Structures are given as structure tokens and as C-alpha cells.
Amino acid sequence: MELVRTIRLKLLVSPEQKQALDTTLTANRNALNFTSKVAFQNGGLSTFKKLQQLVYRQLREDFGLKSQMACNVCSAVASTYASAKSNKRMKLSSFSHSKLVYSYNRDYTVETDKHSVSIGTLDKRIKVPFLVGENYLPYLLSPDWLFGSAELVPTHKGYSLHVTVKRAIDEPNLTECDAMIGVDRGMNFLAVATNQDNKTMFFKGRSIKEKKAKLVRQRKYLQRKGTRSAKRKLKKLAGRENRFMTDINHQVANEVIKFAKASGSRPCIVLEDLTNINMRTTVRLRDRYWRFSWAFGQLESIIRYKAVAEGIPVLSVSPKYTSQKCPKCGHTEKENRDKKKHWFECRKCHYKLNDDLVGARNIRDRGREVRHEIEITSA
Ligand SMILES: [Zn+2]
After folding, report:
1. Beta-strand (E) ranges in the chain?
2. Given 31, 71, 127, 222, which is the most exposed site by the fewest CB atoms within 10 A?
3. What confidence tens digit (pLDDT) does each residue in 138-193 have?
4. Mean pLDDT, the chain, as a whole number?
5. Domains (range + CATH), the chain
6. d(CA 357, ligand 1 centre) in Å
């Protein structure tokens, strides 16, 4: 398994260096659009080799690209048409804001101790000093992390280089898990987690819901107003809304990881498979908005990201009936759950429980079933 992180380096470019990078980016963008036209005229050419045969010389001679850059242009265009083909949406693709992709060693290197990068331009390689957040320095200094590709991104004053670093880690083994943690998204709660001992953790949602609702009201008001200043404020507000959600999701994910580590020495986290979340509409209208407006998909990916770094396996299980099944006797019926009262009572065995917790328990038990199946098949 591989861990990947992206490190943002702020490049401190001189005016001449900025000029050189501007020229390089423009040439790259023009080359992309030229290559795209050629590919389109040839029926949406999506194989790198064929495209390269058609345009490589021109990219080098007319656009002045270095060899590696010309290859990157061909592969970017080829993959664009490959996905257009598979989506059955074939049209001429244009590249308006080009980002430039660099390959490590071939067209960029990092000298961490000198805080500088060497990157290719049309003329020659240039050495540029950089600034980086202190949190990210260990990734650059540690020999465990290897450099991958990097992206040159224009900022409003200059340039940033987004460098990816990778590290190989051992695949966690599910059968060795000594703790199963089920995590569900709640109605009253943002998330609920429960472990093998039925120890439970609730992440209160009310104040978050209220703040989110306030932001949404502000957004609707500004949308109705529609003036230029309202539009400017809307942009700011959208940023605030996103940052707010991301921040909360990080906090919840950290708590889930902490809870998992406290539950056992080799914990495993079980989540609902959220890819079909929109299919699940058996939610009261008032709650439905909350479910769809919160970035639950992001929460899932942040949990995964942090879990992988800790060597904790994450399982996805089917979300079907997780809120209707009795965790005690297995009886599954819609009426088991009273959505209005946020209460679960089994119609068969009369087991009672907070309804948000039922989901988390059922999800955890599905994780156990998966582990059991693996144990049987590998025995
Ligand atoms: Zn029951």
C-alpha cells in the first residue's frame, strides 16, 4: 500500500524567473490545445504512442517544448480523450488554465537543505528558493518519503509547486484485528462510533447543524439579492462554509482514530459504503437536507486518509437496512425505528436503543462478518 501526500512549496521567483515560467506555461497551454485539436481531428485519438508520432516534432520545434514536456502534453491529451470516450461525450477539449506537470529528476529536483528547487523552463533549468510550512518539512527531509510528480500552479502573485511525496507501508491484516469500530452518520449526531464492547462515542451535531443552517440562510439571502457586492460576499461565504465543514470533519476523524486506538492494539474501522448515498431517500425531509448538505463523503475520505497513516484498516460495508435491523435478534422491519422520536424498538424482541446507535452497531457487526469470512477462507 502506498501513502501519498501533497506538499505546497511557495516559490520565491525573481522577475526574470517569473517571466521564464510564464512563457513556459503559455507554450505548454498552446501545445496542449494544438495537440487536442489534432487528436480530435483524428477521431478523438486516445493512445499516447499514436498521438506522440503525430505531434512530437512540432511540439519540440514550433512550441519549443523540452522532450519530457512534449511527452507530458501527449499523455495529458490522450487521457482526456480516453475518458471522453468512456463517458461517450466526445467533443473538442480545450485547456484554458494549464498547470504544468513535472516529473522528479527528469525535470525537477528538490534540494531540501538549501530550500531550493531546480525546475525546467523552455530555455534552461532554473534554481528557485522556496518557503514551506513547518509541518511539511519532515516529508521533505525523511528518506522514507520519495518524491513523485509535481505541479506548477500560478498564484495571484507568483507560483507554487505542489510536490507529491510517497511512502510504501505494509498492508494491514484484517484477521489480526482485535477491535472493530463501526461508524455511522447520525441524524441528531454528526457521527456515532461504537466498538466491540459497545462503548460508544457521539459527535454532537446540533450546534454544528445550527451554524451550518445560518451559513445556508446567509447564502440564500445573498443569492436572492444578486448584486455585484452580494456575489463577492457569496464567494467569501462559500469559502467559509467549506473551511468550516473541512475543519469539523478533521476534528471528527481525529476523534474516531483516537477512539479506535483506545479500543484495541490492532483496531479496524468499519464505514458504510457511501457511493450510493443518493439512493437512500427514506429520510424525513427535514433531515434529508442535512444528510445531503454535509460533506459526509469528505468525512469518509479524511477518516481513510488518517487511518492509513496509522496502519488501521478501513472496511466498507453495505448500508442496506443498517437502521432497520435489530442488533440483538436480527429482525429487520421499517417500523422498528421511530424517526420522529429518534428511537429504535424491535417489534419482535422489544430491544430498545437510540436510533443513531443502531446504525453504528449494525455497521460494526457487518465488519465482524467480513472478518469472519476472511478467517474461514484463509484457514
Ligand atoms: Zn430484536
Report:
1. 2-11, 100-102, 108-111, 116-120, 125-131, 146-154, 159-168, 179-185, 189-194, 200-204, 267-272, 314-317, 337-338, 343-345, 352-354
2. 127
3. 888 888 899 999 999 998 889 999 999 998 877 777 888 999 999 987 667 788 99
4. 87
5. 1-169 (no CATH), 174-207+247-378 (3.30.420)
6. 14
